[in-house]
Design goal:
10 helices; alpha/beta; 191 residues
Amino acid sequence: MAVTAVTGDIGAGKSTAAKLLARMLGCERLDADITAQALWERPDIKAQAVRRWGSDILDVSGNIIRSEAARHIFSSRTEYDFCNALLHPPVMLELRERSRNLDAVVVEIPLLPEVGRPEWVDTVIYVTAGFGVRAERCRIQRGWSRDELMRRESFLLPYDERISISSHIICNEGSVSELERQTGEIINEYK
């Protein structure tokens, strides 16, 4: 099993890089965010979130309203840490188990620097871009202001600590074809 984790800055293009890498390697791509979204529906996790933040985080069908949960999560370091303690262990366990039976896999884990590099990850690619580029991407794709991007980034480890776990760094400020070129160079280093 060869596991390549893709992580990086908010709005830097981690998902695009992970998709390109998986396509170029001809392997499956797993996504920690999608795994975490599914975990919000687990009764034990949902119950802990409701105990912590109240039933206002549920819609009429009893499902977690992601924007309401996010409002609580990013309200303080305490709430952010609570959410991480709630979700990170089961997310990482599921990703490890799903990776175990694959010859090769690309795993997108945005908060990998915060959870720590597990022993089952062979290579880490960090995707970065300048703040202005990322802020514009977040404005277009997520409807976030620059202040919202800065607020969310304030919960992350400092940049130097985040990149310290990386085997490779991609600066993604150009076109998709430029990102593909950089990704290809990393694949060539594998060979």
